[in-house]
Write a structure and sequence with these properties.
The structure is a single chain. The chain starts with a strand and ends in an 18-residue tail after the last helix. It is built from three helices and three strands. It is α+β, with helices and mostly antiparallel strands. Helix content is 39%, strand content 18%.
Length: 85
C-alpha cells in the first residue's frame, strides 16, 4: 500500500520511518518501487524526520517533483527555501 498517490501526476509519496532503514527493508522497498515504476508511477520517498522538521519544505518538494520542475532521485530531501534556489 502506498502512503499517498496522486493519479494526475502519477506520483506515489512514501513517508519512511526509521524501520525502512533496517534489515532487508531497503531492498524490499527498492523492489517495490521498481514494480510501481513499471506501472508508470514514480515513487518519492521522504524520511519521516524531514516531515516533522520542515513540513512546508517537504510539501514544496513534493509539488516540484510532481510538476517536474526539477529532477528527483528519490530521497533527495526537500528543496531549498524560496530565494535560496
Amino acid at each position: 500500500m502506498l502512503d499517498f498517490f496522486c493519479p494526475r501526476f502519477k506520483l506515489a509519496v512514501e513517508v519512511d520511518g526509521e524501520a525502512h532503514e533496517r534489515g532487508d527493508r531497503p531492498e524490499r522497498d527498492a523492489v517495490r518501487d521498481a514494480w510501481v515504476l513499471t506501472q508508470g508511477v514514480r515513487t518519492l520517498r521522504i524520511p519521516a524526520a524531514e516531515v516533522l522538521q520542515d513540513l512546508d519544505a517537504v510539501v514544496r518538494h513534493i509539488i516540484f517533483t510532481a510538476r517536474g520542475d526539477y529532477p528527483s532521485t528519490g530521497c533527495a530531501g526537500p528543496p531549498p527555501p524560496p530565494g535560496e534556489e
